Amino acid sequence: MNNSRVHCWGNSDVGTEIERQFGNLTMLNLVAGEPHACGLTRSGDLVCKGSNGQQRNGSSSRHAEKTEFFSLSELLAVTSNFSLENKIGSGSFGSVYKGKLPDGREVAIKKRRNR
């Protein structure tokens, strides 16, 4: 997978299984594709905007003012470059890594496999 070209996707239900297994983690998903800006709203919705500025995956623009955006370099930093020490699970679609944001929030980041 080319880590320089990823985008995030999700909805308010993303992370339910991770939370059940690992506690109060926020789930972020990475998939291969065109560069997109992604962010997590305070309500837990993941909002992504493409390079053309269009919002993706049905996320509501009502959360736009509360959206936090993460670059790939930030996600690499909080997961120690997706290190094996931070890997908390894997499945047929990819692996899940734990990380801690600079403000102390713990996150789980799913890095999807190419199909």
UniProtKB/TrEMBL annotation:
- Name the residues that bind ATP: K111
Q: Which domain of life is it from?
A: Eukaryota
Q: Which molecular-function annotations from GO does this UniProt entry contain?
A: ATP binding; protein homodimerization activity; protein kinase activity
Say if the entry is tagged with keyword Glycoprotein.
no
The Protein kinase domain is annotated at: 82-115
Task: Supply the Gene3D superfamilies for this chain.
Answer: Phosphorylase Kinase, domain 1 (3.30.200.20), Regulator of chromosome condensation 1/beta-lactamase-inhibitor protein II (2.130.10.30)
What InterPro entries does the record tag this protein with? Kinase-like_dom_sf, Prot_kinase_dom, Protein_kinase_ATP_BS, RCC1/BLIP-II
Q: Does the keyword Cell membrane apply?
A: no
Q: Keywords of this protein's UniProt record, alphabetized?
A: ATP-binding, Kinase, Nucleotide-binding, Transferase
Q: What is this protein called?
A: SERINE/THREONINE-PROTEIN KINASE-LIKE PROTEIN CCR4
Taxonomic lineage is: Eukaryota, Viridiplantae, Streptophyta, Embryophyta, Tracheophyta
